[in-house]
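Data card: per-record layout.
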Amino acid sequence: MHILVVDDELSMREFLEVLLTRAGYQVTCADGVAAAQKVLGSAQVDLVVTDMKLGASQSGMDVLRAARVLDEPPEVIVITAFGTAASAVEAMREGAYDYIGKPFDNEELKLLVQKALEKRNLRRENVSLREHLVPGAGVMGVGRSERMRAVWSLLEKVAPTRSTVLIHGESGTGKELIAKAIHLKSPRAGQPFLPVNCAALNEGVLESELFGHVKGAFTGATQDRPGLLVHAGEGTVFLDEIGEVPLATQVKLLRVLQERKVKPVGSAAEIPFHARVLAATNRRLEAEVKAGRFREDLFYRLNVITLELPPLRERAGDIPLLAEHFLERQRKELGRPGMRFSSEALAVLAAYPFPGNVRQLENIVERAATLADGDVLSLASLPPSLRGEPPLATVAAPGEVSLGSGFSLEHHLDEAERRYLLAALAQSGGVKTRAAELLGLTFHSFRYRMAKHGLSDREDEA
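The structure for this 462-residue chain is written out next.
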């Protein structure tokens, strides 16, 4: 990734060049606005780090404006020595990613750079998806079933609007892909698409992630940070697993959606935001409302338009087409253009109910392509469960159970639970949120069970 450093002080330019080069980035330096414009006009720059004051008459705002008019504008971080909120707010309003005050902590700056470049990559990914995700193309466009044609018809109608859309479907049906398709077919397509998994974050972290926080709001809050709703600009924020949001946060989220303003954690001031909000859930929120686990007023606020994704077992006729779509991707990634399914393997896939839906089918095809010795993906390439072999744990008939001395039901159940946890991790490729979905668990419940069996790592415990 290419970073342009702009500062009128030679010592600061040299310092930042060494710091960022050691972090693995390509760095170019400029001593003022004219030199910065020359670099921006002649090379692909992913991030600009500029001082706010550049000599007696120039400003980092000039560099920011020069960067923002490019066809593919880089992210911009502004360094200020003045500590004035006005200059920082002005920079953010004109499109800066963030700002940092002098003197700054080196690790804090490197983290800020990393986050800015992650946003840059997300924007590029959105552009790429927009080029390829059109009706009839991409995984969500694959298939001829009436249910999916209805989904795409509704998607085409809601995408250009500002309406909030609630996407409902079982785990693995492609809710985030549909949310991306809505974003990419909307006038907001050139702006960020920022997803957040509400089930993977605890209450305090989720509020900080969505609404932002101010310096000193909590331990580790070393500077102001805008939340995703503000940070997305006029883009889209996707609230995945909205049904997992704690009730206390639901109250705040409702007010935010009604007022279109956020109050950062630790602040008394409200900041307007302009992003579109999409939400998704695998729960029936009407039932959650009746059970008292989800606020009725928030449900009606989110449920302006509902887009229902059918499970794969209800569009079984699309399975061969989807399998071929995923196999084509593997042909390209593995450099094996001759790979194909045997008729027996394709028949088994078409008859399987796929509790993990499209995601499970994708994982199975990837596994088969990776492990296949030849170009023909036969029955032997499929997981044992699809071939009719016994599952991980079978339940014996009452008359077949032998309870010898020392038998422990608790130990037996613990061992079975542990095997299923490990199997879900293996099937999901180690992605814990996916593993939780395969088991029908919330991420918090999955993490608890992992810890109970000593399977947690430091990341799980965070």
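Known properties of this structure: Residues 106-132 form the longest helix (27 residues). Confidence is low (pLDDT under 50) at residues 130-137, 458-462.

See the next section for split statistics.
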